[in-house]
C-alpha cells in the first residue's frame, strides 16, 4: 500500500494549542494551489515513487478552505501524474464553519470519499477555551451537509484534557457523536506545546488544565465507552466501526511508502535504501524553489537498516494488532524477537506484551505506557 499527503497550511484562525505549520487566511491563495500542482508535476517526472497509490489525504491547516474548483484542479493533476487506484481512499480534514453544502458536493465530485471533521468537543465553552472558530451547532450543520453530499465514511476528532473539562463532559461528547452514527472516532489527549498561546496561558496561571490522573481517567473511561458502543480500538487514539479504519493512517503505522506535497510535508520511499524527505517550512522558500523548477526539499535522510527497523517497531506498536511478524521478517530477514531480544524480554517481564506466531503487540497497559516501552528498543 502507498499514499499521498497534501498539506494545506491555511486556517481562518490558528487554534490556541496548535503548533503546526499554518497561517491565518480566509481562503487558500491561488498561488499556493499553482505551486502544489507544480510540485506534483515535478515529482512525477522524477520517477522515484511507487507504481500506484491506495490513499490520498488532505491535511492542514484547514483543507476545507479550498474552493470546489481548487480541489478539482488538484485532484485532476494528481490523477494525471500518478496512478491513483479506482478504489482509493481519498480523505480530507474539514473544520465546521468552513464547509458549505456547495463545497462538499464539489469535493465529492472531485473524488473525495472520506471526511475527518475537527469537532474536538460538543461543549461550546470548551471549544472557546482552545480557540476553535465553530460551535457545536455549526458542526451539526456540517455533518448534515456532508451526508446530503453523499459522504458515508466520516471521522470526528474529539479531545480530552481540555481546560476546565470534566470527565462527564468528555463522556457526554463521546455519547453524542456515537448517537449521531459516525463511522470513525479519533479520541486524542490535548498535548500542550511550547510556543503556543495556550502554553503561555497555562504557564502564567490564567488557564488550568485537568491533572494527569483525571486525564488518564478520561482516556480509560472513553476507551471503555467506545468499545461498549461497538467501536473497536485499532490504534492508540483511533476507533472505528468494522471496515471503516483509516487506510491512509494504517499505511503510516505499517511504515509504508508515501509522498508528501506542500509546505512542511514529508515523504518516505524505497530507493536503494529507505529514504525520508521533508519539504521547506516557509512559503517564500517553497514558492522560490518551485519557480526555479526545483523540489522544495529541506532535508533528505537515508536510513540505515537498523533505523528502519526501529521505525517499524515505533509505528507498528501503536496498533492494537501490533507488528506482523511475517511482514517484518520479509522486510528485514529476521524475526522481531530475534532483532530485539533484550527489549522483548523486558516487555515480557513488565507484562506489557502479547505474542503469538503471527503478531507481537502491546496490551492495554503497554499502550498506555508506549513511550517507555519503545525506550527498550532504542
The main β sheet shows up as: 9 strands, mixed
Outline the low-pLDDT stretches: none
Rounded to an integer, what's the Rg over CA atoms?
Answer: 21 Å
- Structural class, by secondary structure, is alpha/beta
Beta-strand content estimate: 15-25%
Distance between the termini: 27 Å
CATH class of the largest domain: Alpha Beta
Mean pLDDT value: 95
CATH-wise, what's the superfamily of the largest domain? Aldolase class I
**Strand order, largest beta sheet:** 9-10-8-7-6-5-4-1-11
Please identify, by name, the CATH architecture of the largest domain. Alpha-Beta Barrel
Number of domains: 2
The total count of strands amounts to: 17
Portion in helices: 40-55%
**CATH domain topology of the largest domain:** TIM Barrel
Task: Provide a count of the helices.
Answer: 16
Can you tell me the overall shape? globular
Can you put this structure into words, describing what you see?
The chain has 378 residues and is α/β, with parallel strands linked by helices. It folds into two domains: 2-251, Aldolase class I (TIM Barrel); 306-375, Winged helix-like DNA-binding domain superfamily/Winged helix DNA-binding domain (Arc Repressor Mutant, subunit A, Orthogonal Bundle). Helix content is 42%, strand content 23%. The chain is built from 16 helices and 17 strands. The chain has helices at residues 30-46, 68-81, 101-110, 124-129, 136-148, 167-179, 197-204, 212-228, 247-253, 283-291, 305-316, 325-332, 336-339, 341-350, 364-368, 370-375; strands at residues 2-8, 10-11, 23-24, 53-60, 84-94, 114-120, 154-160, 184-189, 232-235, 238-240, 257-261, 266-270, 274-279, 297-302, 323-324, 353-355, 359-362. A nine-stranded mixed β-sheet has the order 9-10-8-7-6-5-4-1-11, sandwiched between helices. Strand 7, helix 6 and strand 8 form a beta-alpha-beta unit. It is globular. It starts with a strand and ends with a helix. The model has no long low-confidence stretch (mean pLDDT 95).
Amino acid at each position: 500500500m502507498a499514499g499521498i499527503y497534501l498539506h494545506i497550511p491555511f486556517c481562518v484562525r490558528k487554534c490556541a494549542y496548535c503548533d503546526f505549520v499554518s497561517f491565518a487566511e480566509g481562503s487558500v491563495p491561488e498561488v499556493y494551489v499553482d505551486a502544489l500542482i507544480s510540485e506534483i508535476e515535478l515529482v512525477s517526472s522524477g520517477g522515484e515513487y511507487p507504481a500506484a497509490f491506495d490513499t490520498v489525504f488532505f491535511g492542514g491547516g484547514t483543507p476545507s478552505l479550498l474552493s470546489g474548483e481548487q480541489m478539482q484542479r488538484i485532484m485532476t493533476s494528481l490523477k494525471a501524474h500518478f496512478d491513483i487506484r479506482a478504489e482509493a481512499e481519498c480523505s480530507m480534514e474539514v473544520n465546521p464553519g468552513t464547509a458549505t453544502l456547495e463545497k462538499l458536493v464539489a469535493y465529492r465530485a472531485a473524488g473525495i470519499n472520506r471526511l475527518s471533521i475537527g469537532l474536538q468537543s460538543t461543549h461550546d465553552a470548551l471549544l472557546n477555551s482552545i480557540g476553535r472558530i465553530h460551535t457545536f451547532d455549526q458542526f451539526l450543520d456540517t455533518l448534515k451537509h456532508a451526508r446530503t453530499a453523499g459522504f458515508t465514511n466520516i471521522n470526528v476528532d474529539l479531545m480530552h484534557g481540555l481546560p476546565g473539562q470534566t470527565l462527564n463532559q468528555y463522556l457526554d461528547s463521546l455519547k453524542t457523536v456515537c448517537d449521531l452514527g459516525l463511522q470513525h472516532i479519533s479520541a486524542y489527549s490535548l498535548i500542550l506545546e511550547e510556543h503556543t498561546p495556550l502554553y503561555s496561558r497555562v504557564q502564567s496561571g490564567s488557564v488550568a488544565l485537568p491533572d494527569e490522573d483525571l486525564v488518564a481517567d478520561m482516556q480509560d473511561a472513553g476507551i471503555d465507552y467506545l468499545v461498549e458502543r461497538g467501536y473497536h480500538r485499532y490504534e492508540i487514539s483511533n476507533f472505528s466501526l468494522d471496515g471503516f479504519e483509516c487506510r491512509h493512517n494504517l499505511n503510516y503505522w505499517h511504515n509504508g511508502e508515501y509522498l508528501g506535497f506542500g509546505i512542511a510535508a514529508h515523504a518516505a520511499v524505497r530507493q536503494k535504501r529507505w529514504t525520508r524527505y521533508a519539504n521547506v517550512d516557509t512559503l517564500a522558500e517553497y514558492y522560490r524553489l518551485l519557480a526555479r523548477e526545483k523540489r522544495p526539499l529541506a532535508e533528505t535522510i537515508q536510513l540505515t537498516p537498523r533505523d528502519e527497523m526501529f521505525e517499524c517497531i515505533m509505528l507498528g506498536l501503536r496498533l492494537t494488532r501490533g507488528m506482523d511478524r511475517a511482514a517484518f521478517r520479509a522486510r528485514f530477514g529476521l524475526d522481531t524477537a530475534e532483532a530485539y531480544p533484550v527489549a522483548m524480554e523486558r516487555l515480557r517481564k513488565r507484562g506489557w506484551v502479547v505474542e503469538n506466531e503471527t503478531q507481537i503487540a502491546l496490551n492495554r497497559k503497554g499502550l498506555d505506557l508506549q513511550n517507555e516501552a519503545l525506550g527498550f528498543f532504542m
